[in-house]
Each structure stands twice: as C-alpha cells, then as structure tokens.
From TrEMBL:
This is Glucose-6-phosphate dehydrogenase C-terminal domain-containing protein. PANTHER family: GLUCOSE-6-PHOSPHATE 1-DEHYDROGENASE 1, CHLOROPLASTIC (PTHR23429:SF13), GLUCOSE-6-PHOSPHATE 1-DEHYDROGENASE G6PD (PTHR23429). Residues 1-172 form the Glucose-6-phosphate dehydrogenase C-terminal domain. Coiled coil: none annotated. Pfam families: G6PD_C. InterPro entries: G6P_DH, G6P_DH_C. Keywords: Carbohydrate metabolism, NADP, Signal. GO terms for molecular function: glucose-6-phosphate dehydrogenase activity; NADP binding. GO terms for biological process: glucose metabolic process. The keyword Secreted does not apply. Residues 1-22 form the signal peptide.
Length: 173
C-alpha cells in the first residue's frame, strides 16, 4: 500500500484540528493512526496480475517482464480492511485497495452508509433496499469529483426504488 493512501485515510478520519498549522494537522492524523487495529492476515487480500487479451491487444503478466523471476510471488495488488479503535470509527471498516496494471486508474474514498435498524419499507420494497446502500464518493483522480449515490422512490403511485447520483464533477464546474 502506498503511503499516500494512509495519508488520505488519516485526513478523512481525523477530528478537526485546532488550527490549520502543519503541526496541529499532523497531531490529529497521529491520533487516528495510533489506535489503528493491527492488520490481520484475514483482513488482507494480495494478488499478482496475469496476462490477458482484450480484442486484438495483448497484455503481459507480471512474470512476463524479463526482469522478474518466472516463479515470483511478489504481490502487485493488495486490498485490506483497516479499523480505527476510537469512539467515532469503532467497528467501521476502511477498505483500501492498490495495485499495478489494473483496468482503471483511480484514487477515491467511498463511504457506504449503513441502514438504520427497523426497515419500515421492507414490506413494500422487499430486500432490495438492504442490497443497495447509499454511498458518498470523493474521487481524487482522475476527474476529481464528489458524488452521492442515493436510493430514492420512483415518482408515481407505485413503490419502486431507483438509484440516483448527485454529482459534482470539478471539471464541469
């Protein structure tokens, strides 16, 4: 995992600093990182990219690189669930993913909101409401944006849900 991913996590999860001085911001980031739960093997997935063809284009595997040993087990992808043991973030997983040669290049923070207990609409909407969570996405790159994915009732007399995006794409702003 790259260091900048931990920096972004710390900035996102920290409390408001007493000022915008670098030392005050650093202190708040340290307060987030110190109570971070030790990473357990069952909370991590690692992998290595394989070669594939897409149309007429061929993409080589990691071990096809002449500088890499053919029996290399070096991971080129990692996904981990991180937990911060403090009052605000207790029990909330922070999912981090990073890798080389992925299909898309992006850096973003996704916050998936939990459903409140006692779903009043379960009889009308069934379990579909439980499958689709509302989500706030802060995209850092490419195409910097902030968008909110929300479930909403389709207008009319029926009781159907649809997903809508409220999108602030900085490029078009």
């Amino acid at each position: 995992m790259q260091n900048h991913l931990l920096q972004i996590l710390a900035l996102f999860a920290m409390e408001t600093p007493v000022s915008l001085d670098a030392e005050d911001i650093r202190n708040e980031k340290v307060k987030v990182l110190r109570p971070m739960q030790q990473l357990l093997l069952e909370d991590v997935i690692v992998g290595q990219y394989k070669g594939h063809n897409k149309g007429s284009k061929s993409y080589p595997a990691y071990i096809d690189d002449p500088t890499v040993p053919k029996d290399s087990l070096t991971p080129t992808f990692a996904a981990a669930a991180l937990f911060i043991n403090n009052a605000r973030w207790d029990g909330v997983p922070f999912l981090m993913k990073a890798g080389k040669a992925l299909h898309t290049k992006r850096a973003e923070i996704r916050v998936q909101f939990r459903h409140v207990p006692g779903n009043l609409y379960k009889r009308n909407f069934g379990t579909d409401l439980d499958k689709a969570t509302n989500e706030l996405v802060l995209r850092l790159q490419p195409d910097e944006a902030i968008y909110l994915k929300i479930n909403n009732k389709v207008p009319g007399l029926g009781m159907r849900l649809d997903r809508s995006d409220l999108n602030l794409l900085y490029r078009s702003r």
